[in-house]
Amino acid sequence: MVEPVKRASTAGERIQNIMNMEPKIKNASDSIDLKIKGGIVFDNVSFGYLPYMYVLKNVSFEIKPGEKIGIVGPTGGGKTTIVKLLMRFYDPDEGRILIDGVDIRKIRLESLRRQIGIVSQEPRLFNDTIANNIRYGKPDASPEEIIAAAKIAAAHDFIIQKPLGYDMPCGEGGSMLSGGEKQRIAIARAIISNPRILILDEATSSVDTITEDYIKKALDEISTGRTTIIIAHRLSTVKDADRLIVVDNGRIVEVGTHEELLRKNGLYAKLWNTQFLEKPVEVKV
Questions:
Q1: What's the CA gap between 85 and 80, in Å, rounded?
Q2: Cα 182 from Cα 169, distance rounded (Å)
Q3: Residue 197 and residue 40 in contact, taking contact as beta carbons nearer than 8 Å
Q4: Which residues pair with 53 in a beta bridge?
């Protein structure tokens, strides 16, 4: 009996130490609430998780409000780090990030993160009902709003086929659902919060092609009228984006539409041809 008590006491001390840790990212004394429209600028941004070991190097790009942008490139190139900086989980070592012309370090953290929705490769679902997992994006959401979000996310049809429908438990970490079902519930959760900026970070990388088609249709629906950033390894997910930003080894190496980048016959064209195991695509000039 003594050993379990000791372990519990040690665990309690660790939890207390974590809760007492001072956050590295804080609100500035003059931080503001900002009603975001969705314009994003990375201005000569460099960042490394360790000193003098940059993951991003002199990254600059602009996204206009309402644009659908794909960020692609080899694994480990820095794509997800761009998202972490935009969410302000970290601050750049050099350069600045602007939203609607305002340095994000001047925007109150709660205001910034409330208006950005994110769906990751491994969505975090709670051991609760499907409805409550969607409702997490908007705690006061009505049943009608939950159903509407699920329909947009192409989730409603599979939900109503479950024995308990929207009252079906998801299981710990979504263990009672398939990978594609978890992703679509996570997308519904993001939709119901009505973010001005929506980020999908490798959201289709672990699903089959049929589920990917469902998610792509959902993206077409939800990206209208809001800035959408899609980070993807599977290029078919983003080929219809307004523009593609190609990141390699921490730098932006190409920017353009799918057709423009195929014409350049650079890294994007190489990745495309490798993924689809076909002869180089001929693009009419």
A1: 9
A2: 12
A3: yes
A4: 50
DSSP bridge pairs for 99: 40, 102
* pTM of the predicted structure, to 2 decimals: 0.83
- Sheet bearing 243-248, strands edge to edge: 116-119, 197-201, 227-231, 68-72, 243-248, 251-256
Which phi and psi angles does 244 have, rounded to 5°? -120, 135
Domain 65-90+101-276 indexed as CATH 1.10.730.10: no
Cα 72 to chain centroid distance, Å, stands at 13
**Dihedral (Cα; 50, 53, 55, 56), 10-degree rounding:** 120
Contact 273, 258 (CB under 8 A): no
Asked if 83 and 42 count as a contact pair (C-beta separation under 8 A), the reply is no
Give me the tens of pLDDT residue by residue for the chain, a chain 285 residues long: 556 556 666 666 666 655 555 677 889 889 999 999 999 999 999 999 998 899 999 999 999 999 999 999 998 889 999 999 999 999 999 999 999 999 999 999 999 999 999 988 888 899 999 999 999 999 999 999 999 999 988 899 999 999 999 999 999 989 999 888 998 899 899 999 999 999 998 876 666 777 777 777 777 777 888 999 999 888 988 999 999 999 999 999 999 999 999 999 999 999 999 988 655 555 544
Tokens encoding 113: 């993160």
Give the start-to-end residue ranges of the domains of the chain: 65-90+101-276
